[in-house]
Amino acid sequence: RKKRKINICHYGDSQIEGDRMTAFIRQRLQTQFGGAGPGLIPSLNVYNTISFRHEYSSNFKRKIIFGKEKLHSNKYGVMLSSAIFDIDSSKAIMGIPTEATIKIKPSRLAYSRCKAYNNVELFYNSCESYCSIEVYNENELIAKDSLISDGEAHVFKTKFSVTPSELKIVLKSTKSPIINGISLEGDVGVQMSNIAMRGSSGKSFGAVDFKS
């Protein structure tokens, strides 16, 4: 009634991978109370999912608090997973940035509410060097800016008039920030995020830096 958003995070282990269960619950809630999009998704999604299609450049590396590939800090964000991209050191010495790319598109298998979104938010922290960001709908440039380079946690927000057929995010920097996740949302209603942590016993929550 107040035209606000309600964010729900559904945490689980491998039983909810691929948006299993969450997708159905989300569709029912969004149909009744409004809302659109899959909510928060991993910066690097390594599991097949019915709700979106996700590609990323080979220099991106996944980091998770509940696995072996960890960050040097505990700034994983609410998904307890994040990503950084490898820097070409030969270019960095000369001040030439390394490029990294993330592509996301709606899945034809997704529920109807999940396929539609017009707000994109990129959650990041530990940006300590200049990092440019470009957002495209396929090859059409929608937004061009830079991330805030004070090392703190921030959110880069972009709004579309219609759902991008292929959302492309291009980052360029001589030092990678930590990307904690990307949220695909509507303007109001319920946003429900599927956060699957394969092999996690749920003991990692207390180890996360909550400021991230």
Tell me about this structure.
The protein is mostly beta strands and 212 residues long. It is 10% helix and 40% strand. A 5-stranded antiparallel β-sheet has the order 3-6-11-8-9, with no helix packed on it. β8 and β9 form a beta hairpin. The longest helix is centred in the first third of the chain and has 12 residues. It is globular and about 55 Å long. The two termini are 31 Å apart. The model has no long low-confidence stretch (mean pLDDT 93).
Brief write-up:
The protein is mainly beta and 212 residues long.
Number of strand segments: 13
Individual helix count: 3
Kindly report the oligomeric state of this protein.
single chain
Cα gyration radius (Å): 17 Å
Structural class: mainly beta
Order of helices and strands: EHEEEEHEHEEEEEEE
Average of the residue pLDDT scores: 93
The stretches of 5 or more residues where confidence is low (pLDDT under 50) are none
Strand content: 35-45%
* Helix percentage: under 10%
Attribute tags:
212 residues; 5-stranded antiparallel sheet; mainly beta; 13 strands; 4-stranded antiparallel sheet
SSE layout:
Blueprint: E1 5-12, H1 22-33, E2 39-41, E3 52-56, E4 60-64, E5 81-85, H2 89-93, E6 98-106, H3 112-115, E7 119-125, E8 131-137, E9 140-146, E10 154-159, E11 167-173, E12 178-185, E13 189-196
Parallel strand pairs: 1-13
Antiparallel strand pairs: 2-12, 3-6, 4-5, 6-11, 7-10, 7-12, 8-9, 8-11
